[in-house]
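Ops channel
N.P.: pipeline sanity check, posting one input/output pair.
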């Protein structure tokens, strides 16, 4: 790997990494929510909630109010997955996507 190749596609890797981290954190919140009470003082639970709450609020705007919180979290995971697919498609259409070796 040459010295400049690590950062040559940062414009794709950085948003993809952020979306992936948020997606997996939201998935972790959904799984942890099965065993932790919603008002728990556990620091890991609070971290997951603090990181994902802004995105959960956005997903809740387009999700029926009757949906349980875990359903909203899982819809958020699906939305983030498709955002990542859309990002890849966008960069492929521009011809700016990362190429394999």
């Amino acid at each position: 790997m040459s010295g400049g190749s690590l950062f040559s596609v940062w414009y794709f890797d950085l948003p993809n990494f952020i979306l992936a981290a948020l997606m997996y954190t939201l998935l972790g919140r959904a799984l942890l929510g099965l065993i932790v009470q919603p008002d728990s003082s556990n620091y890991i639970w609070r971290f997951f909630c603090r990181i994902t709450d802004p995105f959960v609020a956005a997903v809740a705007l387009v999700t029926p109010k009757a949906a349980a919180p875990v359903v909203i979290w899982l819809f958020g995971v699906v939305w983030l997955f498709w955002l990542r697919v859309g990002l890849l498609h966008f960069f492929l259409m521009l011809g700016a996507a990362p190429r394999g070796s």
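N.P.: looks fine end to end. The mean pLDDT is 90.
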